[in-house]
Specification:
Layout lengths: L2 E5 L54 H6 L3 E5 L8 H5 L5 E4 L9 H5 L6 E4 L9 H7 L2 E4 L5 H16 L2 H9 L5 H5 L9 E5 L3 H10 L5 E5 L6 H7 L1 E3 L3 H7 L2 E4 L13 H6 L4 E5 L8 H10 L2 E6 L12 H4 L3 E3 L8 H19 L9 E4 L2 E2 L1 H6 L4
Parallel strand pairs: 1-2, 1-3, 3-4, 4-5, 6-7, 6-9, 7-8, 9-10, 10-11, 11-12
Antiparallel strand pairs: 5-13, 13-14
The protein binds nicotinamide-adenine-dinucleotide (NAD).
């Protein structure tokens, strides 16, 4: 019998379950790169479209785990030495958490979890786990690759348009009974004709580029591995050998690389000094890719016309985090990958990974980040241990 410690975000303030806005969900048959959808064996413990990421939803895991004699502990209180998460950690064989409400698995915490064998991210992005410490201890780290990439790409497109068109302030004016057109439009531009650049054209980055192509923008990208020539030709992409070269020519930039030691603070005062005055920056990857106070300075000086995204550090962000109240921002809590559509896929993928793990079957390489004491599978292509 194994103990699965699952850290989930709190239920809706209005109670659980919420009143759902729709009765059904579109049926997706596969991912754009040909990867197959999560394929757990047997019934799902939830109905696709249910809110499964919050405490009462339990990612739908209880029926499978209890039928197989395992113990499921669900907690929400996750930060600090006396949190419920820390108290239950010593008995955990498996820890599951979502990036939206990350259970930070530091080296110290891994040391407090002698039974830990699997750290599973229900979603994408395992930087909340100290990957070196996990590798050193022989803990496998896995995530549900591709599950919510399109969810995030749609959020990026929404944020690009919201910032460039000045949608949020104009909506607030309408909402509060106003009609000053000049106030609405004095920071509003068309996206058409602008130069848009992605740093990290992986699954999300490429999906954003494809979605923005019909807006008649000039598309740029920088990433570790150059994309195939046919993709560059199809999207008329300009490749940049460095992020610095990209930001100098782009009006709108979105960063989509994973977070690891050498991508932390990629956007600092020096990087902002290279950008065009009035550029927009959208970050849905990880908060620490941007220096918190350098973003604030860039907004205050007018170097950035807008900053948007959904990722912060730490999470949840403190009430006085400056990105909450700075001008010209389109920030949300970390939600882009947590749509009910995304939840259905990452909950199914979480079940698939647990089934493979408990039944001694190999976890799909595309789900593996760390295994056998080193980066593995997709993790070897996306992360660096230093
Ligand atoms: P991915 O691995 O497909 O894409 C990342 C790309 O960045 C890869 O192609 C990689 O080669 C490239 N890269 C890595 N380091 C680089 C560097 N230093 N410079 C340039 N390129 C580099 O991952 P993805 O599925 O597109 O997700 C990207 C990130 O988005 C995740 O790591 C995660 O942190 C974040 N994410 C956020 C949410 C959300 O809800 N906001 C959801 C999913 C993923």
């Amino acid at each position: 019998m194994a103990t699965v410690l699952c850290v989930l975000f709190p239920d809706p303030a209005s109670g659980y379950p919420p009143e759902y806005a729709r009765n059904d969900m579109p049926v997706i048959t596969g991912y754009p790169n040909g990867q197959t959808l999560p394929s757990p064996r047997g019934p799902l413990g939830f109905r696709p479209g249910d809110l499964v990421g919050s405490v009462s939803g339990e990612l739908g895991l209880r029926p499978y785990l209890e039928a197989n004699g395992h113990k499921l502990i669900v907690v929400s209180d996750k930060d600090g030495d006396s949190s419920e998460f820390e108290r239950r950690l010593p008995e955990a064989d498996v820890v599951i958490s979502q990036p939206f409400w990350p259970a930070y698995l530091t080296a110290e915490r891994i040391a407090k979890a002698p039974n830990l064998k699997l750290a599973l991210t229900a979603g994408i992005g395992s930087d909340h786990v100290d990957l070196s410490a996990a590798a050193h201890r022989g803990v496998t780290v896995a995530e549900v690759t591709f599950s919510n990439c399109i969810s995030v790409a749609e959020h990026v497109v929404m944020t690009v348009l919201s910032l460039v068109r000045n949608y949020l302030p104009a909506h607030e004016i309408a909402d509060s009974g106003g009609w000053n057109i000049a106030d609405c439009v004095s920071r509003s531009y068309d996206l058409e004709g602008m130069h848009f650049g992605i740093i990290g054209a992986g699954r999300i980055g490429l999906a954003v580029l494809r979605r923005l192509k019909p807006f008649d923008v000039h598309l740029h990208y920088h990433q570790r591995h150059r994309l195939p020539t046919d993709v560059e030709t199809e999207l008329n992409l300009t490749f940049h050998p460095t992020p610095q070269s990209l930001v100098q020519v782009c009006d709108v930039v979105s960063v989509q690389t994973p977070l690891y030691a050498s991508t932390e603070n990629m956007f600092d005062d020096r990087m902002f000094s290279l950008m065009k005055r009035g550029a927009y920056l959208i970050n849905t990857a990880r908060g620490k890719l941007c220096d918190r106070d350098a973003v604030l300075r860039a907004i205050q000086s007018g170097k950035l016309a807008g900053y948007g995204g959904d990722v912060w550090f730490p999470q949840p962000a403190p009430a006085d985090h400056p990105w909450r109240s700075m001008p010209h921002q389109g920030m949300t809590p970390h939600i882009s990958g947590a749509s009910l559509s995304g939840q259905a896929r990452y909950a199914a993928g979480t079940l698939e990974i647990l089934q493979d793990f408990f039944e001694g079957k190999p976890i799909r390489p595309e789900y593996l980040i760390v295994d056998g004491g080193n980066l593995a599978g997709v993790g070897a292509a996306s992360y660096r241990l230093t």
